[in-house]
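Lecture 7 notes: from sequence to structure.

We start with a single chain of 62 residues. Read the sequence below before looking at the structure.
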Amino acid sequence: MDLTQGDIESVKTYLCQLKADLVFYDFTHWMPSLARRLRLKAIDFCIVSSAMIGYSVVPSRF
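Now the structure, written as tokens:
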């Protein structure tokens, strides 16, 4: 996913022209920082169940 950052960076002007209020993203860890620079809200669209996310981030598992 890091290789797509350059492609998205090149459409900043287009995103500004859209006058978007928010951006949905899934795996791209750099999208929130890009959205912040463009003053957009970034929404993480996660298709994994909330139970799996809760299980995987429990500190006692590490």
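The chain is about 40% helix and 15% strand. Keep this in mind for problem set 3.
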